Amino acid sequence: MDKKSLAVIVLSFTAAALFVANLLMPVRTAVADEVIKDRDYQVLTARWQANDEALLIVDNRSGQMAAFVYDPNARGVVIKAVRPVMDAFAK
Q1: What are the tens digits of pLDDT across the range 39-90?
Q2: Which of 58, 56, 30 is nearest to 44 (CA)?
Q3: Is the pLDDT of residue 19 over 90?
Q4: Phi-psi domain of 40 (left: phi exceeds 0; alpha: psi -120 through 50; beta: other)
Q5: Cβ within 8 Å of residue 58, ≥6 positions away
Q6: Are 58 and 37 contacting, i.e. CB atoms less than 8 angstroms apart?
Q7: Which residues of 67-78 are buried (b: 16+ CB within 10 A; e: fewer)?
Q8: Which three-class secondary structure string do you get for 1-44?
Q9: Are 81 and 66 in contact (CB under 8 A)?
């Protein structure tokens, strides 16, 4: 057995092992359920629309909340709304 044959066999077994591992490992999807709270600001993720998630930043001192979402057309994060936090609790 020469070096080329040994290399092909080792690479074939490695490729097979990686293929099987890829099939068996579950894929973790992004979930909007994270919250970071500090003294002046809170940062959280939330579902914005059906297939859209938003990054919400709350300024605890002013009571304002800003919502940022990813816009694929602009290929970046854009601001969707800035409102007082109390608007979320209004009837």
Answers
A1: 788 888 888 777 778 888 888 888 899 989 888 888 888 888 898 888 878 7
A2: 56
A3: yes
A4: alpha
A5: 41, 42, 43, 44, 64, 65, 85
A6: no
A7: bbeeeeeeeeee
A8: CCHHHHHHHHHHHHHHHHHHHHHHCCCCCCCCCCEEECCCEEEE
A9: yes
Angle at 69 between CA 48 and CA 60, to 5 degrees: 80
SS3 of residue 62 by DSSP:
coil
Phi, psi of 39 (to 5 degrees): -70, -45
Taking Cα atoms as reference points, which of 54, 57, 82, 56 lies closest to residue 70?
54
Q: So what's the pLDDT on residue 32? A: 60
What pLDDT was estimated at residue 85? 84
Residue 87 phi/psi, 5-degree rounding, is -65, -25
The model scores a pTM over 0.90: no
